[in-house]
Amino acid sequence: MILADDQQLVRSAFAMLISATPGMAVVGEAGTGRAVVELARRTPADVVVMDIRMPDLDGIEATRLIAADEQLAGLRVLVLTTYDTDDHVLSALRAGASGFLVKDTRPADLLTAIRTVAAGEALLSPGPTARLIARTLAATPETPPPPPAALDRLTDRERQVLTLVGRGLNNAEIAGRLGLSPLTAKTHVSRVMGKLAARDRAQLVIAAYESGLITPGPGAGPT
């Protein structure tokens, strides 16, 4: 994986932890956003652990460039932030990040998060994610929702699935809620991602809120 943070001490601490973990390796480090994009383009990796606030090019724009590069389609970005109330996290998720963690997370949780993202899953904590989206949409009501035509392509069942993904349910929980097999639930999620051109579940969560399928508020989390 690649570590991107403007603080050498932070990168060194993460590198020691990751390098000491079987099955994991750090293949490169970068201290600026532009440097991490260039590094990603020339160094094969599964995950970028990305700080949001970096010089030259911030982590949000670096994430956007990585997500938009077809040659980096298999590379996932895990965003690190100082606080889970950082409104910039929502921008990073919109840009294509697969999830976020706060920097003071426990080492074991960081390693689990890296494995989760490397496996192609999104890493979202429904509570903090819902609060971020609710606060951001309330502060910027002029933010336009996704084009209605995108949601019009979804069947009624797919809209139900998108809503449950937005509420933080995994495939097994979606299957139980809708009376489906886990494989059928997974197929529905994949079809929704394809129709909405979503990189992963993180973007489906954003779409569920911004499209109005879920109204931000006290009941926005899992039910």
From TrEMBL:
One Pfam family recorded for the sequence: Response_reg
Entry keyword annotation includes Magnesium: no
Domain HTH luxR-type: 147-212
Keywords of the record: DNA-binding, Phosphoprotein, Transcription, Transcription regulation
Domain of life of the source: Bacteria
InterPro entries recorded: CheY-like_superfamily (IPR011006), NreC/VraR/RcsB-like_REC (IPR058245), Sig_transdc_resp-reg_C-effctor (IPR016032), Sig_transdc_resp-reg_receiver (IPR001789), Tscrpt_reg_LuxR_C (IPR000792), WalR-like (IPR039420)
GO terms for MF: DNA binding
PROSITE patterns in UniProt: HTH_LUXR_2, RESPONSE_REGULATORY
Record-annotated Response regulatory domain positions: 1-118
4-aspartylphosphate PTM sites in chain numbering: 51
One GO term (biological process): phosphorelay signal transduction system
Keyword Glycoprotein (UniProt): no
This protein's name: Response regulator
Organism the protein comes from: Streptomyces mimosae
